[in-house]
Design a protein that fits this description.
- The strands form four sheets. Strands 2-10-9-8-5-3-4 form a seven-stranded mixed beta sheet, with helices on both faces. A three-stranded antiparallel beta sheet has the order 11-14-13, with helices on one face.
- Strand 6 and strand 7 form a beta hairpin.
- It is about 40% helix and about 15% strand.
- The two termini are about 35 Å apart.
- The chain folds into two domains: about 240 residues, Type I PLP-dependent aspartate aminotransferase-like (Major domain) (Aspartate Aminotransferase, domain 2, 3-Layer(aba) Sandwich), CATH 3.40.640; about 120 residues, Aspartate Aminotransferase, domain 1.
- The longest helix is centred in the C-terminal third of the chain and has 21 residues.
């Protein structure tokens, strides 16, 4: 029998069976009317998730490809941008910009904390000549389990006049993201997170300020040219061959989300996040992220003293079939991460915490292995 796994990482995430099956439909002509109908329905559904009246595009590629699209469509070599980073993926956004000759100024915050909107305000206020053309921010940093307050950051950047380019790859659907209300100019998301479909799609939402910047942008672009994407979408097509099965899956996953409602989905993720945080603390473990800005998509947990992260993750997988994520870069041997976004239920959270308690005890940690599940059930109202 094929080994069953409980995938509790921040992506790729589990996929509902009905969505998996929709990817096995017979192939259709990506230039024909059937695909055009799927693309139109999915695009409208994604637009509702972004909470925007502006253009939204479904791109074939990873979230990182979407971030590259944000850079190459709006900036020119030598432009000054402010990179607001709280972790690995904030740094990656900056690295993409540097690769294309953009002049990046870093405003970094201690890992485990959120960006301070007032420090962003102070830096932008000091930019009297308006040299900063764009600000790069990650809404939800999965490497540290921290969520930035985009509702505060957005208006601050808009007051300065710079473009605000946002990595919402792991936040969209899992938590509220009000693109228009929060003054976000170009926002990127990815399919393999809370959308509950396999990797392969990126989503780009573009407002009028971002379109205006594209008229001046000089970085060469071909595959990620959003003007081409707009032209082809008007015909019910994509400029290049799309990931057809994932588009069918996206349409069907959006139908599931529509039944749950976005508000219900946000509440579910908040509930899962609270249950995981309460559960790991009941097991005597310490959270890595500032509780005031803890993510409802992923929880970063400090390892117990004397325990190797790799050994804990291996035991969780080999004996209990639970897949946890490790730390990244300097946090590789310091934390492990529990993803709780997308197709995740209370039963998944309780099972994970139960297995974690048993694994900790087996590794020699003095712990009541049932404490995590008890705390989680209480948090879930059980």
């Amino acid at each position: 029998m094929e080994e069953k796994q409980l995938l509790m990482i921040p992506g790729p995430t589990a996929v509902p069976p009905s969505v998996l099956l929709s990817g096995a439909r017979p192939m259709v002509n990506h230039r024909g009317p059937e695909f055009a109908a799927v693309l139109a329905e999915a695009t409208e559904g994604v637009k509702k998730v972004f909470n925007t009246e502006h253009d939204v595009f479904i791109l074939t590629g990873s979230g990182t490809g979407g971030l590259e699209a944000a850079i190459v469509n709006t900036l020119s070599p030598g432009d000054l941008v402010l990179s607001v980073s709280i972790g690995v993926f904030g740094d990656r956004f900056a690295s993409i910009a540097k690769t294309f000759g953009v002049n990046v100024e870093s405003l970094n915050f201690k890992w485990g904390t959120a960006a301070d909107p007032e420090k962003i305000r102070a830096r932008l206020h000091a930019d009297k000549d308006k040299a900063i053309k764009a600000v790069l921010v990650t809404h939800n940093e999965t490497s540290t389990g921290v969520t930035n307050d985009m509702a505060k950051i957005g208006p601050i950047v808009r007051e300065h006049g710079a473009l605000l380019l946002v990595d919402a790859i792991s936040s969209l659907v899992a938590m509220d993201c009000q693109m228009d209300t929060w003054c976000l100019d170009l926002v990127i998301a990815g399919s393999q997170k809370a959308f509950m479909i396999p990797p392969g799609l990126a989503f780009a939402a573009v407002n009028d300020r971002a379109w205006a910047a594209m008229e001046q942008a000089k970085i060469p672009r071909f595959y990620w040219d959003l003007k081409k994407a707009k032209d082809y979408l008007a015909r019910g097509q994509t400029p290049w061959t799309p990931a057809v099965p994932q588009c069918f899956q996206l349409r069907d996953a959006l139908r599931i989300l529509a039944k749950e409602t976005l508000e219900g989905c946000f509440a579910r993720h908040a509930s899962m996040g609270a249950a995981v945080r309460d559960g790991v603390q009941a097991l005597g473990l310490k959270l890595f992220a500032d509780p005031a800005h803890a993510s409802n998509a992923v929880t970063a947990v400090r390892k117990p003293e004397g325990i190797e992260v790799g050994a804990l993750r291996k035991l969780m997988l080999d004996k209990y079939g639970v897949v946890l994520a490790g730390g990244q870069q300097s946090l590789k041997d310091e934390i492990f991460r529990i993803g709780h976004l997308g197709y995740v239920s209370p039963l998944d959270v309780v099972a994970t915490l139960g297995a974690l308690g048993l694994a900790l005890k087996e590794l020699g940690v003095s712990v009541d292995p049932s404490a995590g599940t008890t705390a989680a059930l209480k948090a879930l109202g059980g």
